Every structure is written in C-alpha cells, then in structure tokens.
C-alpha cells in the first residue's frame, strides 16, 4: 500500500524558530490534511486543503497544497514547547469513501 | 459531544485469544474507519464503513472483522490474536462535505499487546 513520504523524519529546533516540513506522493490527491499527534493520543486535525495552490493558515501554522497535487508543505512560525509531537500529512480523493493515505510522520522536538 | 470514544485503552492478549475493540461516535457521522499504527510508522487502514450495514476492507484487513449495525458504533473484532497484531488501534469518523468540522476525527486509541 502507498504511504506518503515526509521530510524531515525528525527535527530538533529552538523555541522561537520557524519550522518547515513537506510531504510528497507519487500520485495525485485532491485533498491534503495535516494532523498532529501527541504521545499516547490520537491524531488531531490542524489544517485542510482542497484546491491546488491553496495556502491556508491556522494560527501560527500555514500549509500549502502543491500545484502538482502531489505534495504539500506545513510551516510553523515562532515554535513553542507545546508544538512538540509528530506531524502527519494525509491525502485523500473524493469518491473513495474519503479514505486517507497517511505520511510517515515528522517528529518535532523543541528545546528551550 | 464526546466525539469518538474507544474502549479499552489498553489490553494484553495471549496468542489465539479473541477480543472486540469498541468504537462509538456521537456526531451522527456516516463514515467510520479503523486504523493501526505500528511503532514509528504512520496509520494504515484496516476496515471502513460508509454507513450502517455497509463495510469494506482497507489496506491491511487480514485477521480482523468489523460490523456496523448502527450509525454510532463500529466494533473491530480480532478472532485469533497473533503477535503481529501488537499495535495501537485508532478509530475515526467523518461527516459529509468539506471543512475542518467534517474531516476525520480520531479516538484516543487502544494499545494492544499480543504475547
């Protein structure tokens, strides 16, 4: 089964720094989602993207739907300690019961 | 709304035992899903349902069964537990349409160990 490739796999950053991560696929999706997972919890939806080229923000988070429909990017500005966790991208195509294909995850750790 | 609830939170099974993981949602969502997450990996789809009485296989269905007799509940059954089924299991539900309120919401997970 397909999984989306995310990079980097993990990153250590200092509090206050900006963070960028991306997600790539060999096939096209018409919706991209970004989730965050805290230890011992289920994923929580952060941002949803529905249109190629779309740029969407949610607080300090900004995500973009790649123009080729095969990639997406997530940026976190001015990171804080509670940003620690694993970030997953997920792609879906309508008409497929909205089944998600998940990325491999980016683990973010923030140092003070 | 309680959202998506899962029970139990933790379980240890012996090889060959059976169990049912429970999942319920109170958002009147039509779509429900079961995923497993192995250590350091993303989530893989086991089974899904587009409505009461309708279920279908996902990417990794072997060793599992599901039923959907009501809109609210979507239990996952392991008939003969194997060590390869040691994982964290997540249930999710989704409404219709687009938007943050309609995309897949996840439960807190059930951590299963098979020894």
How is this structure best described in words?
- The complex is a heterodimer of chains A (112) and B (115).
- Chain A has 112 residues and is mostly beta strands.
- In chain A, 0% of the residues lie in helices and 52% in strands.
- Chain A contains no helices and eleven strands.
- Chain A has strands at residues 5-7, 10-14, 19-24, 31-37, 44-49, 55-58, 61-65, 71-76, 85-92, 101-102, 106-111.
- The termini of chain A are far apart.
- In chain B, a hairpin with a 5-residue loop joins strand 4 and strand 5.
- The radius of gyration of chain B is 13 Å and the shape is globular.
- Chain B starts with a strand and ends with a strand.
- The interface between A and B is medium-sized, with 24 and 28 residues.
Record field, number of beta strands of chain A: 11
The parts of chain B where pLDDT drops under 50 for at least 5 residues are: none
- What is the overall pLDDT average of chain A? 92
Radius of gyration of chain B: 13 Å
Strand count, sense and barrel status of the largest sheet of chain B are:
7 strands, mixed
Q: Give the tally of β-strands of chain B.
A: 11
| Through-space gap between termini of chain A | 39 Å
Number of helices of chain B: 0
Tally of alpha and pi helices of chain A? 0
Quaternary assembly: heterodimer
Which residues of chain A sit in consecutive blocks of at least 5 with pLDDT less than 50?
Answer: none
Strand content of chain B: over 45%
What fraction, in percent, of the residue positions of chain A are helical? under 10%
How confident overall, as mean pLDDT of chain B? 93
What is the alpha-carbon Rg of chain A in Å? 13 Å
Helix content of chain B: under 10%
Identify the overall geometry of chain B: globular
Q: What does the main sheet of chain A amount to?
A: 6 strands, mixed
**Which band does the percent of strand residues of chain A land in?**
over 45%
Which geometry of chain A do the CA atoms define?
Answer: globular
């Amino acid at each position: 089964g397909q999984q989306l490739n995310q990079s980097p796999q993990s990153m250590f950053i200092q509090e206050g720094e900006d963070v960028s991560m991306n997600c790539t696929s060999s096939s096209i999706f018409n919706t991209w989602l970004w989730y965050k997972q805290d230890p011992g919890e289920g994923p929580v939806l952060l941002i949803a993207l529905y249109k190629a080229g779309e740029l969407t923000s949610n607080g300090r988070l900004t995500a973009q739907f790649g123009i080729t429909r095969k990639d997406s990017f997530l940026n976190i500005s001015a990171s804080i300690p509670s940003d620690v966790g694993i970030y997953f991208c997920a792609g879906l195509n309508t008409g497929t019961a909205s089944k998600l294909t998940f990325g491999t995850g980016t683990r973010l750790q923030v140092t003070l | 709304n309680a959202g998506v609830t899962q029970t139990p939170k933790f379980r240890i099974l012996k090889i060959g035992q059976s169990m049912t993981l429970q999942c319920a949602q109170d958002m009147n969502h039509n779509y429900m899903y079961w995923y497993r997450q192995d250590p350091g990996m993303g989530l893989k789809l086991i089974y899904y349902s587009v409505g009461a009485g309708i279920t279908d296989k996902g990417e990794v269905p072997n060793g599992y069964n599901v039923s959907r007799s009501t809109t609210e509940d979507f239990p996952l059954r392991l008939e003969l537990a194997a060590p390869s089924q040691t994982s964290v299991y997540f249930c999710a539900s989704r409404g219709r349409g687009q938007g943050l309120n309609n995309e897949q919401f996840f439960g807190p997970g059930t951590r299963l160990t098979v020894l």
